Amino acid sequence: MANVTLRNVRKTYTGGFEAIKGVNVDVADGQFCVLVGPSGCGKSTLLRMVAGLETVTGGEIDIGGRVVNQIEPADRDIAMVFQNYALYPHMSVYNNMAYGLRNRGMAEAEIKTRVEEAARVLELSAMLERKPRQLSGGQRQRVAMGRAIVRQPKVFLFDEPLSNLDAKLRIAMRVEIRKLQRRLNTTSIYVTHDQLEAMTLADVLVVMNGGQVEQVGNPLAIYEKPATTFVASFIGAPPMNLMSTRPDEIKSQLGGAAGEAGIVGIRPEDFVITDQTPAGGVALPLTVEAIERVGAETFVYGSREQEDQRVAATPGELPPGEIIVRIPGTEAPAIGQKIRVAAVRQKLHLFSGDGRKRIEA
């Protein structure tokens, strides 16, 4: 096992395109780190740099106290699981898992021990003689994971390993990956664009955008205190409601918050439908545009009346825009109905006008 430290890591391609812009991340020994962000944010490029599949333009990648920038992938003591499984179709499950160990010259007795133990852990013991075409998608992904496990590496790297699976199987495999990582206690770095996957798997979450790290921390801490409006809108489903307002409105309506604040954020679950305006909080008149019932809760999509975009109609109100409200149960207002929703001061998130800085009141 080992820690992984990225120090000012950069990647610039021919032509000057900078894909990774000075990333600093420290993954402690045994931690499960998840890199999350939209397509094109650089998360897979960063993972491939850790693996040695992409060269490093600048900075250092340290695995277990050893800078590996110039070390070949095979010598970094890492194992990678890809999204497309990358299994040999003509080989049995056993031989797929044993292949890498044979290439390293390991004795057959030791290979057998490792493969059978990994198969037991992954519930593949009854499938060792099957070919990949005889397996389901989830079983193939478990074989790919088994091939990594038998290596007994210092670090596991996962590149969107569940993206090819259906929704139900993704949930099951997500749980299995987390249980497996805790059992093995191996440092792991996992790439995904799915923020729910990221929130449920990570010990430490790294939110990326445009080749840069927006925020690093505990998933719940990031959810509760996003550092930027990008993080606020990306982490959480449905996303946080973000509303622009003038600094003087923030100061007068929200209890003297810092004057540089220009954006107010409210999570959908922090709204309540009410006729009251809480002291120091906000209230919004909405017209219900759509309803989504998803079982134990309902999402209400509402639009503000088209009032002046800059000046709130009454104290405690914010300018127009689409608002999402999450309410428990299946009871909901009718489409077209006019309602009023409110949030208390403690549930508001304030950001600078450019969205790059969180403001504490």
UniProtKB/TrEMBL annotation:
Alphabetized GO MF terms: ABC-type transporter activity; ATP binding; ATP hydrolysis activity
Query: In terms of one coarse class, where is the protein primarily found?
Result: membrane
Q: Which SMART domains match?
A: AAA
What Pfam families has UniProt attached to this entry? ABC_tran (PF00005), TOBE_2 (PF08402)
Give the InterPro entries listed for this entry.
AAA+_ATPase (IPR003593), ABC_transporter-like_ATP-bd (IPR003439), ABC_transporter-like_CS (IPR017871), ABC_transpr_MalK-like (IPR015855), ABC_transpr_MalK/UgpC-like (IPR047641), Mo/tungstate-bd_C_term_dom (IPR008995), NA-bd_OB-fold (IPR012340), P-loop_NTPase (IPR027417)
Query: What GO cellular component entries does it have?
Result: ATP-binding cassette (ABC) transporter complex, substrate-binding subunit-containing
- Keywords from the UniProt entry: ATP-binding, Cell inner membrane, Cell membrane, Membrane, Nucleotide-binding, Sugar transport, Translocase, Transport
Specify the protein's topology with respect to the membrane.
Answer: Peripheral membrane protein
One of the GO biological process terms: carbohydrate transport
- Can the keyword Transferase be found in this entry's annotation? no
Q: Where in the cell is the protein located? A: Cell inner membrane
Q: Where is the signal peptide?
A: none
Q: Which residues form the ABC transporter domain?
A: 4-235
Function summary = Involved in beta-(1-->2)glucan export. Transmembrane domains (TMD) form a pore in the inner membrane and the ATP-binding domain (NBD) is responsible for energy generation.
PANTHER family in alphabetical order? MALTODEXTRIN IMPORT ATP-BINDING PROTEIN MSMX, SN-GLYCEROL-3-PHOSPHATE IMPORT ATP-BINDING PROTEIN UGPC
The family line of this record is:
Belongs to the ABC transporter superfamily.
- What protein name is recorded for this chain? Carbohydrate ABC transporter ATP-binding protein (CUT1 family)
Organism source for this protein?
Bradyrhizobium huanghuaihaiense
